[in-house]
Amino acid sequence: MIRLAVRAPLEATEQVLAALLELAPAGVEQVDGDGFVELALYGAPGEVPELEPGQAEVGGVRVHVSASAVPDDWEERWRTFHRPVLVGERVYVRPPWEPAREASWGRPTEIDVVIDPGRAFGTGAHATTRLCVELLLEVAARDGGEPRGSLCELPRSVCDLGCGSGVLSIAAARLGFGPITALDADPLAIEATTANAAANGVELESIERANLSERAPPAADLVLANLMRPLLLRVAALMPGRPSALIASGLLEGEADEVVAAFAPLVESRRVADQGWCAVLLVEAGISLS
Known about the structure:
Layout: E1 2-9, H1 13-23, E2 29-32, E3 36-43, E4 54-58, E5 61-69, H2 74-78, E6 85-87, E7 91-94, E8 111-114, H3 127-139, E9 142-143, E10 146-147, E11 158-161, H4 167-174, E12 180-184, H5 187-199, E13 206-209, E14 222-226, H6 229-238, E15 245-252, H7 256-262, E16 267-274, E17 277-283
Parallel strand pairs: 7-8, 11-12, 11-14, 12-13, 14-15
Antiparallel strand pairs: 1-3, 1-5, 2-3, 4-5, 6-7, 9-10, 15-17, 16-17
Helix pairs in contact: 3-4, 6-7
């Protein structure tokens, strides 16, 4: 197996990723560095795009390309990079080979989410996923088992756009949302989300393949959209109406204002950022999450 890596400036992530996904729609591994991003494709010789090692141009961006053979024990080595992550002191996302955290007196009850990504995107560790979960926790804030304050005005159905390995759908189900629809263009994501939902004992109403650049998402009260800027803008254009709340992630910090405007008349309630990435929570005008 070959690992073909394309290193680009961080600010050009979206442009290079879009070009690579046209060449390899099944998925691209992303590793963020200090001022750069490395996007990698895996496959047997002849299966990965023919990009010569060294300086090249991808999506109109000057990049550095490298290729290396993947060791036979790559699946075992890969496990060392899939580590547990605690989001908002509430949601603990871990791979199946890591134990659950022990309960501790005085600590809020944790939601244990077990994710085996297989060959799909999403382990919970990437900043874009963590930021989504952080905002999801805000929407799901409870007091005595009931939505807090005006959150009771927010209904509970969810549509997860670009579900990957199912992290967000499963976390939403464990937080009490439902029914939940999970959509992704990648068949490997559908496979992983289905398996992970079963492993976590949650029921998702629908897990479907969908080309979000061509198909309007189904109606839901809360939409989770961990996508890149071009696809978020396309989703906004295709959506016949607006949900009560929408969490948009997968954005570089300088891209958020454009996406917020595209989903008007929803208004921005909260914005969070980490490692150059950004996520926003949009709600109907007049709804307060405080």
